[in-house]
Amino acid sequence: MRIWCCFCFGEEEEDNSRGYKKNMRDPILGNNGEESPDENPAFDWRAIFDGVDVGGAGASRSRADNVGVRRNEEIDFDINWLLSDVEARNGNYSGERMLNVNLNLGLSEEASSSSTVQKEDPDRDSCSKRPKVNSFSLDWDNHLLQETSYLCPMNEGGGDVSLSNFLDATDDKGKDIGISKMEDLDVRMDLTDDLLHMVFSFLDHIDLCRAASVCRQWRAASSHEDFWRYLNFENKQISSDQFEDMCRRYPNATAVNLYGTLNIHPLAMKAVSSLRNLEALTLGRGQLGETFFQALTDCHMLKSLTVNDATLGNGIQEIPIYHDRLRLLQLVKCRVLRVSVRCPQLETLSLKRSSMPHAVLNCPLLHDLDIASCHKLSDAAIRSAATACPLLESLDMSNCSCVSDETLREIAQTCASLRVLDASYCPNISLESVRLVMLTVLKLHSCEGITSASMAAIAHSYMLEVLELDNCSLLTSVSLDLPRLQNIRLVHCRKFIDLNLHSGMLSSITVSNCPLLQRINITSSALKKLVLQKQESLTTIILQCPNLLEVDLTECESLTNSICEVFGDGGGCPVLKSLILDNCESLTAVAFCSTSLVSLSLAGCRALISLQLRCSYLEQVSLDGCDHLEIASFSPVGLRSLNLGICPKMSVLNIEAPQMASLELKGCGVLSEASINCPLLTSFDASFCSQLKDDCLSATTSSCPLIESLVLMSCPSVGCDGLLSLHSLPNLTYLDLSYTFLVNLQPVYESCLRLKVLKLQACKYLTDTSLEPLYKENALPALCELDLSYGTLCQSAIEELLACCTHLTHVSLNGCVNMHDLNWGFTGDQLSRIPSVGIAPHGSSLVEQHFPNEQPKRLLENLNCVGCPNIKKVVIPMAQGFLLSSLNLSLSANLKEVDIACYNLCFLNLSNCCSLESLQLECPRLSSLFLQSCNIDEEAVEAAISRCTMLETLDVRFCPKICPPSMGRLRAACPSLKRIFSSLVPS
Length: 987
Hints:
InterPro entries: F-box-like_dom_sf, F-box_dom, FBL15-like, FBXL15_LRR, Leu-rich_rpt_Cys-con_subtyp, LRR_dom_sf. By secondary structure, the chain is α/β, with parallel strands linked by helices. It has a domain at about 820-825 and about 860-985. The protein contains 27 helices and 48 strands. Helix 9 (about 195-200) crosses helix 11, helix 12 (about 240-250) runs parallel beside helix 13 (about 265-275) and helix 15 runs parallel beside helix 16 (about 405-415).
């Protein structure tokens, strides 16, 4: 097989800047490859689509620029670009379509069908054969690379020679030798015509025009008549000569679009006279003379004619349209006095928005008639036109204000097969005595004559499937029993009160903005979703919908407590899963007993006082805004989590939830009775439940033995008995007793042996000896985080705790007024023996190796002393704070001296320490240092950060002694700095 890469060579190879031999006839232009003189330029059909000049030098330049080709340049065609472009246009091209393609790339001496065609006369019909598509290997790309690498010899150094380098090689005289070597090997790369044909079938006309400029093979492939069956010149500036040339080149075109072109009449005449296979013609934006419609009879294959926004004839004469094979005729927004249509095969006719006062139809097979917005058509003209089509199935007469009931009656008698009727915006119809038995779709938008009496006529349409009654302002009630009704719309019916529907197939109900609607009665076995939002007057709902799954009654403010009977067991909705009653402000007591309900939303029901749910499968409940709820019972429910903290008036609570894992009662300040039976509960937050007593806590811990996190913050009624009941919680690891009146922590020490986190914020009644069991008796051996913020412990108790309770990793002492200097330093003799920082081979510090008995091992990693007003000095040597990684001393207004040497410290916050004067740091891993609003000078900061070799963030905003120009000195002192936050102007 000869493999030929589609290159376009320069003048020496082809003697033509576009790569075509002069003695070859151009397959598209038909000018033997030569450009016509400027005074008589040849027609270039690409200019129509690309928007370039036709015939002149500008056209040549534009065509060259479109494909990136100029004289003496080669086009290195990449098949991956071609396929990726098609893939981008048509989704994943590598799917089913690609599986049926064969690149037919092989290395053999036998010429392929495509290479054989290459050697034939260029005047051949290169695209006469139909595309032949074979199987395509998914690894064609690798196969192509293997074959091209076979063509590229190895250089002397052993490196690969790329195909492009091989083709670009020249000898000593500058002569191209790459191509000669290719010819010697008698191997060419070629894209088969079948592959091109298939790929080009995805391109539009503009891309086909651009592809034609790549090479001779592409030009011939892009001109194949299969791609030009539809000549689309919509809004293109094409002359009569150009269009005539296109018709001559593609006489088998079947569809033409001339909408928006200049002088549509001569172009349309040329189309119907030249294209004998024309089946579809689209015209518009211009004037069509009477001769065009007379010439239509000679276009025997025409099946579709569309004329949009045009003047027919001179606008004051009758236009006859006679054709034996026409199936579709559209005269949309046309200006004409009278139209006579005689087309025995016509099936669809549209005269929409046209200004004709008269229309004569002789179309015995017409099925679809659209005369919408034909305001000048009289009632008699509409009656005459419609009754002349006995097989009519669809009639659109919307916005024909003169239509009367008499016309509808005659149409109903004549057109027995009428199935679709749109009579919207026809104020004179009331459907009195109208019987449309076979009707399936009826649209009556904004029909002022439609009232409740009209329902008697609609009830005879037992085949009706779709009924639309939007904006029927006089309609007060709808009562229908239609077995096939599927869809009904009632929007903006201002006087509508009662809806009564019985239909086994009803699946969609749209009722909106009917402010007086009070009663709804629906029976349907197909309805699955019902949305009745913002029906302020709705009070009564009766449903018999065995398959109803979702109901949305948001902002139905008049609904009463009886709604619970509708959606509970036995209420007609046995499989209901989702119910939304948001902002139904008349609901006061809600009680649901359902074995199917999964989701319930009562958000914004501010009048709700009592809630009782017996829904064993209920997984989601929303009570946002139910701030008056007092009594709640969830027994049983399938909830996994519940937040009742938004119900501040709740006093009685009963929960039985076998699957619940998280319960939050935060803010239920008056809750005094609570029965909680949740055997899988792991997190319980009863913050600010000031009335929660020991007996309630004991019962909860007994029925919920798996609790791991317990928050009793601001629960002053909990005492020793309640805390002793915590021994029933063997997995308890988190306990928050902040803001309580505890005096003795002994019940906690005895009951919570696995406790890891203990929070005692603002427990001001604890004595100085309350924490002694922690560091003297090894109580709570698993404790690693302790929060004593805003407490009243003395300095000595705090120092002993920090010194002896060495297993703590996180300690918070924020706001402790008795917290004075934080000095962990050694004596002078010990300081002289502190070794340099280092890590022992087994992971222990060198400090620990030198002082195995003198200092206990501290595990402290995080220390917070925010807002301690009496701290003046902080000294932490390397041996004492070796594992410390975060230290926060911000808002300590009297802090003056900080001397810290911590190997692992990464975060240090000294912001708003306005008295800070001395700062000494030896923290090789410090990455963030905050000194915001400190009075320290820049020399002290420079010296401090010089020993922090990994510092990245420094915050010195609002420091009055540090000016922005000194940022360079700080960066020089610490080269690792990446971010310095400073004030824009000196304070």
